[in-house]
User: Fold this.
Amino acid sequence: MVDNLEIVREARPHAAAGPKLVVSGLNFYYGDKQVLHDISLAIPPNQITALIGPSGCGKSTFLRTLNRMHETIRNTRAEGQVLLDGEDIMAMDVVQLRRRVGMVFQRSNPFPKSIFDNVAYGLRVNGWMRKRPLAEAVEHSLRRAALWDEVKDLLHESAYKLSGGQQQRLCIARALAVDPEVLLLDEPCSALDPIATAKIEELMFSLKETCTLVIVTHNMQQAARVAEHTGFFLHGKLIEFNRTEVIFKRPRCKETEDYITGRFG
Amino acid sequence: MGSRVATIEHLPRAKTPRTFFRRLRAGDHIAWAITALAAAAVLAITLLLVWELYSSSALARTKFGWSFLIGRTWDPVAGEFGALPFLYGTVVTSALALAMAVPLGVGAAIFLAELAPPRISDGLTFIVELLAAVPSVIYGLLGIFVLAPLMRRAGAPYGVGIMTAAVVLAIMILPFIVSISREALLSVPREQREAALALGATRWEATWQVVVPYARLGIFGSVFLALARALGETMAVTMVIGNTPQIGASLLEPGYSIAAVIANEFTEAVEDLHLSALIELGLVLFGLTLVLNALARLLIVMTKRKGAEQ
Amino acid sequence: MTRRKITNAVMFGLTGLCALLTISVLFFILGYLVYYGGRSLSWDFFTQLPAPPNEPGGGMANAIVGTGKLLLLTALIGVPIGFAAGVYLAEFGGRTFSSIVRYTADLLNGVPSIVIGIVAYALVVVPMKRFSLLAGAVALSIIVIPITIRTTEQFLRAVPHSLREAALALGARKWQTVATVVIPAAFRGVLTGTILGMARVAGETAPLLFTSFSNQFWNRGLDEPAATLPVMIFNYAISPYEEWRRQAWAAALVLLTLMLAANLAARLVLSPRGARHG
Ligand SMILES: Nc1ncnc2c1ncn2[C@@H]1O[C@H](COP(=O)(O)OP(=O)(O)O)[C@@H](O)[C@H]1O
Ligand SMILES: [Mg+2]
Assistant:
């Protein structure tokens, strides 16, 4: 059923835990239109998994089903099973799920609030009220997002004063503040310049310690640089999933090869 | 796991007591319930309004039937109530007001939306919007003390009358016509006018031959909205129409309107039938504005949709 | 060729004249009010109760306070209902019920204010058996609710979907998202719209004639009739007494100043880009 489980095991034979996320038989519909067809894969823990494919192939949609963000869009339906640490996410409380599986979006979307309030947001809505721990957690998250030194004197300024790359890292810090186990990133660098992109890639490496990362990217070099595993989507189907070097050097499917050699998309 | 940072221990992880989350989740239901209640209140108020007008006018409706609308006599002492003089006054003042205000208002809207330089247009539009905020009782005040003497010199026997009311109404609805027509013109896609200009049309030709026809429905919509306002306008009309329930031979003579008679007689109506007849007038007014508003919205929506399709 | 150019210039001039005529009305009104009203304004106008007919002096202190109380009460009754209903339409509503509510609110918005007065009379005055401030506030609330609904919904909808997503993805409940992200982001716009709506009802006269009625003395409770500026203007303007007519001008100047100030504040200070009317 889950065809890449072996690959995951093989990649991290010493990993005590099984895969962090296991998706099986996932179909997804916007109204009557089916955009994901029978997707099955397993996401290994504490690694970076990249999803690539031409635009419109369903990568974002797939990512959203992993923390049920699709439920915020009217008329959507997901069939199949997603297990987080063996637990069915559809049966979980959605807020608990999203606390454990955070998300960073393609366009940075800081709140029109101060930098501090942005990072503290997730904690506050989860009932953190006391000042001290809040301030510590905010600092800690900003440090993890490698943003602390740049903003430590601007904490109470509007988040919109930051540059694009800083805003995106602020969004990552905000997601990290609630200490997610999985972080989903949907083309986080697509609007950024190369320097900001490099910073975020560096940041992703440092997060592997504590997080499982899944990144959607249209940039194949980026996938090759950062990810241990890569999945290739086409027309709503998962064509191939394997270790990144296999995907890029010895793809098993013709479509994958065509895509990575730039023959379409 | 020990390497995780200390702060994380503060986090209420998965083992948080369920009641806490249950309470938070209940928040969604509570928020939904409160806001839905408010939304339902709008329906309730409107239904109540219709029902109140209908049921409280029962006495007059059963007594006079449809002849209420064509009766020419309004005599509270004799208990005879016919609405025709009021219908006449309402409809005629509104129609005259439209005849005066529409050309002026649409002209101004064309200037603001199409011809004027943006800076000037913004400033003038702002003033038009302020104008729309002037209370009607102030128009009435100026009507009595400034316009009525002028009308007397122009030949109106009492100064006040149908024509005076129509002029005041025209001035009052002008800002509405301007701002809604202007929006209809602005919702015409850029390409439409650019195409015309590119073919060598002058600014005016592009406006008159392309933009205005395109926005036609929206402009009609503004006219209907203005008409609905004029029909329902109370204070300014009450102050200058002369308050005489007659269908005069001349437009310069005094008349009466539906809204004005309600305003004047409602607190003095001691007989049930009188009150009921006044409320029936309210029902008629409500019906008239309902139809006009519905038509206006339909037209405005149709123009907007037309703009969106292209 | 030249004829077309001449037409162009002539029409430019003609439509410009239309615009000029339209806006000149405002200056015309302002001029008269300042001239006649300014002459009749005095300190007494703001501090004294109305004097009996034909006695000199007196003021409209009770009407100024009455209008203030009435607006406060309207803001407490009508604005919360309209705001909550607007939040429902923008955030919580299902499709069918929402469009019914939206349509109904539009309908209510078009109902002549005198008709709303009749309904408030039937709902409040008849059961209480007396004219009252409360009845006036109910009437004005019915007018302000659809205005508030529309501005609230419009400004909440203008908040980007991505902000809602960000909050939800952080584990915020829907109500938390709405309360802590969406509403604060739309706050200025909603406030602007609300102030404009209140300014509009501040000048309403017709629905007050047989709800809050009028009062030569101070209003001392929600269940008593109250003097208000618009109704005073009306009563005094149609009265036969010279002194009262002069006071009507003064009251009109005060009322218009308040309304223009509210409009200017809302449009220029609060939201420089300008909330639209309605
Ligand atoms: N809200 C939506 N409603 C309907 N169809 C959608 C919606 N969002 C995305 N789609 C469709 O679903 C397909 C997959 O979209 P998406 O997941 O955004 O692709 P990707 O992220 O790979 O570019 C596309 O065909 C797109 O048109
Ligand atoms: Mg995408």
Notes: Chain A is about 35% helix and 25% strand. The interface with chain C takes residues 67, 69, 72, 95-96, 98-99, 102-103, 105, 107, 109-113, 121-122, 124-126, 171, 174-175, 178 of chain A (CB under 8 Å).
